[in-house]
Specification:
The protein is α+β, with helices and mostly antiparallel strands and 429 residues long. 23% of the residues lie in helices and 33% in strands. It is built from 10 helices and 22 strands. Strands 9-10-11-12-13-3-4-5-6-7-8-14 form a 12-stranded mixed beta sheet. Strands 15-16-22-21-20-19 form a 6-stranded antiparallel beta sheet, sandwiched between helices. It has a two-stranded antiparallel ribbon with strand order 1-2. A hairpin with a 2-residue loop joins β9 and β10. The protein is globular, with a radius of gyration of 27 Å.
Length: 429
């Protein structure tokens, strides 16, 4: 019997390899496609590794309790922040300029491009990357990574610093003015120097604590986030009038720390996505929270008594609710520096009086010019009318989530709510 199998042919199931190859070619299947298919089969185990983790079942109440009761005191990592609120850049620039001017009036040494409220207002638009480090309520650090520049906020005990490398300017807060920027509960770190959340932990707490009585909460499966096994918590408004459809929070299974927060608008679009891309729960080195003023930096000082007056670069993150109430205070009597908090939960509205005069806007819309100079002076009321549209009772600036109503007499009402809610709060409907 003659063996027709040529040297080098491998026989598998009675069919030589060369014969099988000729069959594939005759069938119109290129070898490159076959190679891709084979490679794809090899990728299956790798893809399976990213499948949702199998975790013990928890009720929504248990998962919320896990978040609010988390005793994790230390962490560090990289945070990606993507925001698409649809806010006009001119409005952000004017707001940043107004905050910088307010900081200057409170600090006594002029405004600074390093002012945290003005600088971190940039987180309300576009994509940002931050490095964060936390060691309890007294030590936090946030580094905003920018092209060819950077911005740093450091809170360490009774003092805090903010530094803008692009202008080499710094703001220093001491005493109570610095200490008040950690969470008043004393257990968990708050956003240093500003009410703008810079980590998923801060964002999640604001949603879970401020809206507990007006919220529908469910557990929506599991996920892998920043190398951590996590539960998915779905938080939705239980009342009408909100422009937010859902907040999806990923909670670390091991310690209850929120790892990501994604906010969806009623139109289905993602308006906020803040998540860790890498995270460690080891205690950061003590030197992480040291700050040395760079050579030649211009420093603006804010002392404790200035912060107590509500005049310095303080953050505003309303935690209470006030159906009306005294100007500048919520229902608990907390002073918010001339801002009213109206309503509760998802339909909370904040109101204030729009400045009547002109506001100086930094040359680059809030980040400060090359030498920290100011740009053109804008009239807020004229700006609002140019950006908004006439509605009953005033002018409306509408974004994907946040709506702002400016009444004809110069009052401002804003919130993640529909126009009728704003008009009701203003008493113009």
């Amino acid at each position: 019997m003659t063996n027709d199998t040529a040297a080098g042919d491998n026989v598998d199931g009675g069919v030589p390899y060369r014969s099988r190859r000729r069959m594939l070619v005759r069938a119109g299947v290129p070898l490159t496609v076959a190679a891709v298919i084979a490679a794809g089969v090899g990728l299956v185990p790798a893809l399976a590794a990213d499948a949702p983790p199998d975790l013990p079942s928890l009720t929504p109440e248990q998962l919320v309790a896990k978040v609010l009761g988390s005793d994790a005191q230390a962490l560090s990592g990289t945070v990606s922040v993507s925001t698409d609120l649809g806010l006009p850049s001119q409005l952000l620039g004017a707001a940043a300029g107004g905050l910088g001017a307010a900081a200057g009036r409170g600090g006594g040494q002029g405004s600074s491009s390093a002012d945290p409220q003005a600088k971190l207002l940039g987180l309300l638009g576009g994509d940002q990357t931050l490095r964060v480090a936390v060691d309890g309520p007294d030590r936090q650090r946030v580094d905003l990574l920018e092209d060819m520049a950077g911005y740093t906020v450091v809170h360490n005990g009774d003092q805090a610093w903010a530094w803008d490398s692009s202008t080499n300017t710094a703001v220093r807060l001491t005493g109570q003015a610095a200490a008040q920027h950690s969470d008043t509960a004393g257990k968990h770190a708050g956003a240093p120097l500003t009410g703008v959340p810079t980590t998923p932990q801060e964002a999640a707490r604001q949603f879970l604590t401020a809206s507990a009585d007006t919220t529908s909460v469910t557990v929506a499966g599991t996920a892998n986030v920043a190398g951590q096994k996590a539960y998915q918590l779905s938080v939705k408004p239980a009342q009408s009038g909100s422009t937010v459809a859902e907040v999806r929070i990923a909670v670390a299974a091991d310690n209850g720390v929120p790892l990501s927060v994604v906010v969806k608008g009623v139109d289905g679009s993602t308006v906020l996505d803040v998540h860790f891309t890498d995270v460690s729960f080891a205690k950061p080195a003590a030197k992480t929270f040291d700050f040395t003023v760079p050579k030649g930096a211009k420093v603006t000082e804010h002392k404790a008594d200035e912060g107590a007056k509500g005049e310095g670069p303080q953050g505003f993150a309303p935690k209470g609710s006030a159906p009306g109430g005294k100007a500048g205070r919520d229902a608990s009597g907390q002073d918010h520096g001339g801002v009213n908090v109206i309503g509760e939960g998802w339909t909370t509205v904040v109101s204030a009086q729009l400045p009547g005069g002109a506001v100086d806007v930094p040359q680059d819309g809030g980040k400060g010019g090359k030498h920290g100079g100011r740009g053109a002076a804008l009239n807020p009321q004229a700006l609002v009318k140019s950006l908004g549209k006439p509605v009953g009772g005033g002018t409306l600036i509408s974004t994907k989530v946040v709506n702002v109503l400016v009444t004809d007499d110069g009052r401002v009402f804003a919130g993640a709510v529909t126009l009728p809610v704003l008009q009701h709060a203003a008493g113009v409907n």
